[in-house]
Amino acid sequence: MEPAARLDNNHELAVKDFPYIVRWRDDRCKRCGRCTAVCPMYAIEPAVIVQRALKSEGTMPEPQAVRRVITIVKQTTDISRYCTGCATCTLVCPNEAIEPEYNPAHKFNFHKNRGGHPYRRGGRRNDPAPSTLDRLRFSRISMLTDPALDAGRHEFRIRTYLGRILPAEELPVRVVNNRLEVNRKAGTFVPPVREIYPIMIGSMSIGALSPYMWEGLAMGITYLNEVEGMPVVMCSGEGGMPQRLLRSRFIKYFIPQIASGYFGWDEIVRAIPHMIEDPCAIEIKYGQGAKPGDGGLLMAHKVLKLISEIRGVPMGVDLPSPPTHQTKYSIEEAVAKMIQSMYMAWGFRVPVYPKISGTHTAKAVLNNLVRNPYAAALSIDGDDGGTGAAYNVSMDSMGHPIASNIRECYLDLAAQGKQNELPLIAAGGVGKKGNLAANAAALFMLGASCVSIGKYIMQAAAGCFGDEYNRCNVCNLGKCPRGITTQDPRLYRRLDPDRVAERVVEVFKSVDTELKKIFAPMGRSTELPIGMSDGISADDPAVAERLKIKYNC
Amino acid sequence: MCRLAAITSGEYFSPMENIIALETMKEGHDGSGMGLILKGLGGEFEELKDYPVLSGICSEDGMKTLDGYMNRIGFRLKYTWTPKTRTVRGIESRDHYFARVYDYPDMHRDKPLEEKEMLLLKTRLALRSLGEEDESIIIFAFYPDILALKEVGDPLQLGEFLGLDRSSLKAKIVLAQGRQNTNYAINLYACHPFFIKGYGTMTNGENTAFIPIREFLSGRNIPGYIGYNSDSEVFCHILHYTCRQLGYPLHYYKDVITPLKQDEIDARPDREAASYLKRSLRPLCIDGPNCVIGFTPDGTCFMVQDAKKLRPGVVGGVKGKFALMSEECGLDSVVPGRDKTTDVFPMKFDMVIIKPDAEEVLVWNQLHG
Ligand code: SF4
Ligand code: SF4
Q1: Ligand 1, residues A36, A39, A82: which to mutate, most atoms within 8 A of Cβ?
Q2: Which of A94, A110, A126 corresponds to the end of one domain?
């Protein structure tokens, strides 16, 4: 009998407490060591065990018990090295000998606070249930009384506007010889407006993303614009952009973001005199759907040479952005002054809009913006949005879903007759289950002029492992096994920027076809069906009532 | 799909001509109703052109309410036209069909047209709401030189029922629509043609962009932009909004409802203004299928199509008389002797415009002017 002390594992966790259990098969494993080498968490390690086996060697069965020493792949129960379920091990295993399996009975959240540090991670809300957007269907199908369009044959205009649009009554036009002419003497400021593709890539910074990932996205965007004629744009995220890009003609496809840390803006401001094109727009970040009320955080181990140069900071220090813009003490300050300063920087030629996280108070912000003639749009990021680093509690328990937030803001604008003046950009979980076109189209019909995607494009273009079962989600640690959210060259070299760019193009071309497949049977093609709420229905009466759409069952 | 028959002429003619044209297109309407709007009234109305005509239908009670209301406001009845109705099988007669000419209340008589229009509109809306619930008062129009008639039934039978074949009622412009009902319940307010402050339209087809357009128009805060019992009523209000509220020339109506692509706009001489327009009026873009026929206060008539699906529509005639019809056979019935080679079938970029008194037909093209 073993001494009692050796059986006392009381303060250890069992593999059963972990969200993913590594299924390793002794009979298939050839002990190549690839899995243990590649595991970003060191969650598995080679171990040696003593195994009792029965052996019989002669012509007659003469079983003998033998003990032999073998090597195995063992999952650790050290919570700091938990298996994230990323399945990189599976990916590299030549013999299909290893696979993580989700454990729905896990106790991870009870234990992941060692040292008094709450659990922090990347990814998004760990809620695998379908979002409201996935519960909406397009049920106004054109039949006989209205011949449906042909997605393959008819011309579709899938474009939207980014920028403040003057009401027709205020346009500086006059009739001269039965023709409208712009009246320059009127002195009316006509805000800059961009015609863009209604799905944009949302703010993910160089820093949060690896240089290869960011480059891949940027190349994809540029190709879409220059070759495919699709004006898809992308927001930089906080932390600036490479000087080379700032000074190139491609900057017009990008939206530099300014956030509360103002990282990278010294460099951007310095580049302004050398810019040969204006950026598409400027986004001022006030909030983020995944972590409302939280600032940004780039961990020290991600702040390597490139990042320190772009952001204008020393290497190897944590880069926290405060939750709010510290110099601004009221919404009038924060919004009006900041928007105007940014307009001024580019001679009032670039639209400037704020981004907030989804909230019950979005309407208050909205109405403030309505009264500000410079506000170019309002971007609202719902609680299914993703992030590179946040507290788990913020991600899982904070925020407002995008569907009802966009809807109430749109209806509020419509009640004032201003739904065409201030475009609403919807973000946060668009394409959460892979249904990008359907989610985007539903948001347009609820009132969004444009949608913004982040996690979706990481998954589709670079194979990000993250999901709502907390798979992987170590974006904050700089250990991204796909090389997407890391600054470690050994990891990001795994990613081929050209392949990422190619996937970005494929994704947008296919989503464009899918949007047509939605709009065509609904008889819409000339303009984006913004606010066409009679087109959609919900499978839940409460959802239908809240969104003021039809309930179908 | 409804059938449309519009005629514009330098001479007065009877609305029966429109009704007979509708009869030739009979397979296109199901007898669920007809709407008529007459503009440029002749006969007994010729001398009364400056006075507003209240067109509608009332029950006995409704008539009393109406009289009480009009008296209170100070409108004085000058002349009443009522159709000499006959019993026609299948048509259920209501108590009072009328077109009543009123003199303005004293304090409004010398006011500018705009103020008078506002008074007329407010009065029409007030009467409408007084009788809406019990359908005791149904008002189609209250405007000088405009007469509207609408009722459920087959157009030819309705013509007979209203005695239009023997009436001296004549006009220079008549819009007539034979309904193809797509709703079980028939609401006369959903019946074309629609009219607001001098502008009238009728449409066939279905308006897929109805909800965003309705929300946009309702948000303009312009009195009279209400109702929308039919998805086609917005076409009339868009016309009014474009030409009256914004003061744009008529052909911009086409640019508003079927905007060009940006590169197409860039090739136009008015590109800058047209681009502004496209953005600012984006929610008014239609997607069809629709053919819209209408008139403006000066007596110009037009026909436009949506940009892709198109509904049947043809314009033809001779100087002094043109017809805008859903079908060629309607045209043949109205102007049989015309040169058919000059008939115009407007396509996606076209707007057919006929000058007042049917003087001239112009085809305005969005790309080439
Ligand atoms: S699934 Fe990922 S974290 Fe888990 S053992 Fe495999 S490589 Fe390591
Ligand atoms: S693959 Fe990279 S980006 Fe995706 S969840 Fe894992 S760490 Fe984050």
Answers
A1: A39
A2: A110
Lookup: tokens for A32? 């190549």
Query: Does A149 lie in the same domain as A34?
Result: no
Q: Which residue, among A516, A551, A553, has the nearest Cα to A148 in the 3D structure?
A: A516
Hey, what CATH topology would domain B3-49+145-365 get? Answer: Glutamine Phosphoribosylpyrophosphate, subunit 1, domain 1 (3.60.20)
CB contact under 8 A, A169 and B216: no
- List the single residue in A with minimal CA-CA distance to B211: A532
Q: What is the pLDDT of residue B184?
A: 52
Which pLDDT score is estimated for A279? 97
Q: How far is the CA of A102 from the centre of ligand 1 (A)?
A: 12
Beta bridge partners of B177: B4, B35
CATH number at residue A85: 3.30.70.20
Residue B347 carries which DSSP code?
-
- Residues flanking ligand 2, CB < 6 Å: A 86, 122-123, 458, 464-466, 472-475, 480-482, 484-485
Residues A154 and A47 in one domain: no
Its sign, for the CA torsion A145, A150, A155, A161, is positive
Which amino acid type is present at position A338? M
Whether residues A159 and A217 fall in one domain: yes
Ligand nearest to the CA of A45: 1
Q: Which residues of B touch A193 (CB under 8 A)?
A: 279
Mean pLDDT of chain B: 91
What is the number of domains present in chain A?
A: 2
Q: What is the dihedral of CA B286, B291, B296, B301, to 10 degrees?
A: 150
Integer angstrom CA distances of residue A173 from A1, A167, A351, B267, B272: 96, 12, 22, 18, 9
pLDDT at B188: 83
Return the residue of A nearest to B247 by Cα.
A175
Query: Is A481 found in the same domain as A419?
Result: yes
Question: Which CATH number covers residue A293?
Answer: 3.20.20.70
Q: Which segments within A335-485 are labelled E, that is strand?
A: 352-357, 378-381, 387-391, 424-427, 450-453
A451: Cβ–Cβ under 8 A, 6 or more apart, which residues? Answer: A198, A199, A200, A425, A426, A427, A430, A439, A440, A443, A444
**CB within 8 A of B198, min separation 6: which ones?**
B117, B143, B146, B240, B244, B296, B297
The domain ranges of chain B are 3-49+145-365
Mean pLDDT of B18-40: 85
- Please indicate whether, in this complex, the C-beta atoms of A180 and B252 are within 8 angstroms of each other: yes
Nearest residue on chain B to A536, alpha-carbon basis: B211
pLDDT, residue A5, reads: 60
Residue A31 C-alpha to ligand 2 middle, in angstroms? 27
Q: Domain containing A44: what range?
A: 15-55+62-110
Instruction: Kindly indicate whether the ipTM for this predicted assembly is greater than 0.90, answering yes or no.
Output: yes
Largest CA distance in chain A: 112
